[in-house]
Each structure stands twice: as C-alpha cells, then as structure tokens.
Design goal:
alpha/beta, single chain
Length: 456
C-alpha cells in the first residue's frame, strides 16, 4: 500500500499515513436544525464507541440539483449558524461544500474542511480561494477525470500555498445515468502522495436517473465501502439521514442512521486487517517507490531538471588537498545524462547549499542552464521558484534529485522527486519519492535522467 502524507484536521486528528480511516458523515443537505443535531449526536456516539475519527458533513446549498424545482437547502447564512452549533455542542470538525470563490473565506470561519464538488474540481479560481483559507481542502474527482488528472488539481492548490489536500473518489461516468468505481483508480490517486477519501454513497448514484432527480442504490454502499478499504483508502465519505426516504436530496443513496454502526463495524474489520498487514507507513519508515509504479503522465510534462551536488553528483565525501583546497569527485556519466536532457529540450541545473568554485566550474563545463549555490533549507525551494518564474513553468514541471534534509522542501514540492540509494531515511520516506538503485556520485543522476528520457 502506497504511503501518503498526513493532513491535520485543525488539531482534532490527522488523516492519512497508515491510520484507521476517518469517517466523513452527515446528511446530504441541511434540512433543519433539529435533524442535523440529531444526526450529529448519534454519529458522535457511534464513532466514539467504535474508535473512529468523525468529521461531520452537511451542505447548506445543493447548487447542482437535477432540476431547478428541487429544494437546495437552507442557504449559507442559516447553514453556517447550524454547523457552528454542531461544532460548539459536539466538538466535531466540520466539512461543507463551496460552489463559488467568494464563499470560501466566510465558510472557512466555521468549517474545518472545504469541499470542492466534483463538477467544479477544475475551477481554478474556486480552488485557489479554498486553498488560500489555509483550511484542509477535499476535492472530489470529477466523474469525467482520470485519477492521474488530479495532479493538476494538486498543483493549483499547492501553488496557492496549501498542502492540506484530500482527494475524493465518487465514481466515474459509465454510459448514461450510471457510475462505476474503478478500484485501481484509488491506488493511482494515492500514488500522488495525498490521502484519498472514498465517497461511498455518491458512487452508487444514478445521475438524473429519475428524470428530474438523481436515483441510486444504497444497498450497494457497504460493499463498495469494504472494497475501497481493502484496496487502501484514508477516509470514507457517506451521507447519512435519520429517514432517507424523505430527504430533499440523494434520497436513494443516503444511509439510514440506524444502520451506520453495523456498516462501520464491518468496515473497521477490513481496514484493520489491511493496514496491520502493511505495518507503519508513516514518514518515519522508508518506502521504496520504483520507477514503473509512477504514472506515465508524470514524466511527459517535465521541462526542468535540477540536482543537488554533495551526496548526489558527488559521493558526499569531503576531500582536501595539502593546500587546504576542497576537492570533489564528479561522475562523468551523470554529466552526460544532463547533457542528453538538454538535447531533448529540457533545461538543466543544480541547486546546492554549498558555495565553491569547483561547482561553478563543473556547471560551466556541462553548459548547464542554471547553477545556484549557497542556498540552505527554505532558500533552496525559493531559488527553484525563481527559476520556474523565469521559465514560466510550475513546480509540477520540475524534476529534482536530492539526498538530505536540506532537500526535503524541494523534493516535496516538485513534480518528480528522486533520491540516491544512500539518501537519509527522511528523504526516502517522502510520498512518491523515486529511490534510485545507485548511490550518490556513482551514477544515480544518470539513472534518473535515463528514466526520464525513456518516457519522453
């Protein structure tokens, strides 16, 4: 099971890593204060008894109804008041949808997770506004998108300064008025390095299946939920209602509140078995991600290749002559690899913490496009951002290879990250890091450049 980073939910708990799944649950729409409080109270009791982290979910506005005649909910002002009461009364983190960019800031004053509806998952202004609140953002994958297309969504959120990202699967369009769930898609999305949420109730929808409203089949929800947990997901999203038959939205899909405990108990058994078998996959333990497991689209868009120096282009040894001058041993194959990239139109460079004439000489000999020295920790990432701005590209179009803690910021931000076989443990543990088979100074950069060239 692929390791992913954890996302903190406003100090309540974290989602991701190898933790037991979190449960995002509540009614589809806020129909009344009384119904919402009843549902929240019972869900809290159930989840406390079963030791499951709960995020309460309810929407103040269902803006994408099948028909304009259908009820949409109580509206933002009234809805946020009710959600604030749930938060104050039960101490639960809150999730709700936003549909327009202007809604994000006021909604973020109440909720802990802003949710982007599937139909809006590519709306740049909405994503940026949600990201800029600093709250966690749960993006539902559009029914029309491939799993790896969510990398573009991630880039929009990250470029807006937010790493607290959750990716949600809610089914893929399969012909007319029907959805299917490709379980391999959950694996593919998790390879992007962020926690994956499985929306068990929307995945059984029959969109527009009843003419002016959406149909569905709630009987299939427990089966899909268990299947997703068997594959390995980090949270389950399910809409729950005391009496779904009379719900104003998704009446055919929502779970009965009275059945949630039994369904969750079965889900926990599956989740515990799967995650115990993989052990602790948090960032403290290195996990290898081999090149064939990286989705092909990751390599196609690379426009800039950057490398660290010490421990990557060299063996990390510090050699000194009698005169006290520092010496470095570079690998000729690495240099040729970077030159081959340049011939294919990919810019190349080095970004390093050290500052020596040797590195400048090596960079000039290889005719690199960029060499930036003397940048430590956050300064290295800032240097890469400046190069990207100059090239008019994004961080997702950058490949970088580094080996130590001062490379963590860059490796976590770029589109493709790799490390030598002898990199430090915290670097090896980064989500989606490509752990190369060769050590620093022994051809690891050439191994990485060949990997990229073979996929162009």
């Amino acid at each position: 099971m692929q390791p992913v980073r954890t996302v903190d939910i406003q100090g309540h708990f974290a989602v991701g890593g190898n933790r037991r799944f979190a449960f995002f649950a509540g009614p589809c729409a806020i129909e009344s204060r009384e119904m919402v409080l009843e549902t929240a109270s019972r869900l809290k009791e159930i989840c406390a008894e079963l030791d499951v982290d709960l995020v309460f979910k309810a929407s103040f506005d269902k803006a994408n109804r099948s028909s304009s005649k259908n009820a949409r909910g109580v509206g933002m002002e009234a809805g946020l008041c009710i959600l604030q009461e749930v938060k104050d009364t039960f101490g639960l983190p809150i999730l709700t949808d936003v549909h327009e960019a202007w809604q994000c800031a006021p909604v973020a004053e109440v909720v802990d997770i802003l949710q982007i509806p599937a139909f809006l998952c590519r709306q740049t202004d909405l994503l940026v506004a949600a990201a800029q609140t600093g709250k966690a953002v749960n993006v539902k994958k559009g029914q029309f998108l491939a799993p790896w297309d969510m990398r573009n969504v991630i880039d929009k959120l990250r470029n807006a300064g937010n790493e607290r990202i959750l990716l949600c699967e809610r089914g893929t369009t399969f012909g007319y008025n029907n959805l299917v769930v490709d379980m391999t898609g959950l694996v593919e999305m998790r390879r992007l390095g962020y926690p994956v949420v499985f929306d068990a109730t929307h995945s059984v929808q029959k969109p527009g299946g009843q003419g002016t409203s959406t149909g569905g089949n709630r009987a299939m929800v427990p089966y899909l939920m268990r299947a997703a947990l068997a594959v390995g997901v980090d949270a389950i999203f399910a809409e729950v209602h005391p009496n779904p038959e009379v719900a104003i939205s998704d009446a055919a899909n929502q779970l009965y509140l009275s059945q949630v405990k039994e369904i969750l108990s079965q889900a926990i058994a599956i989740d515990d078995l799967v995650k115990q078998s993989f052990g602790d996959l948090d960032a403290s333990e290195p996990v290898i991600v081999n090149a064939p497991e990286i989705s092909q689209p990751d390599f196609f868009g690379i426009k800039l290749f950057l490398s660290d120096v010490d421990g990557v282009l060299t063996d990390a040894g510090m050699y000194y002559a009698e005169s006290g001058d520092e010496l470095k041993k570079f690998n000729a194959h690495d240099g040729m690899g970077m030159q081959l990239l340049r011939k294919r139109g990919i810019k190349t460079g080095i970004v390093t913490s050290e500052n020596t004439h040797l590195v400048e000489k090596r960079a000039k000999k290889l005719d690199l496009d960029y060499w930036v020295q003397g940048q430590r920790n956050e300064g290295k990432l800032e240097a890469v951002r400046k190069i990207c701005a100059q090239e008019n590209i994004t961080l997702s179009e950058v490949a970088y290879v580094g080996d130590d803690v001062n490379c963590l910021e860059i490796l976590s931000a770029v589109g493709i990250a790799a490390c030598p076989a002898d990199a430090v443990a915290s670097v090896k543990a980064l989500p989606n890091i490509i752990r190369l088979s060769k050590k620093g100074g022994q051809g690891c950069v050439r191994e990485f450049t060949d990997m990229i060239l073979s996929r162009l």
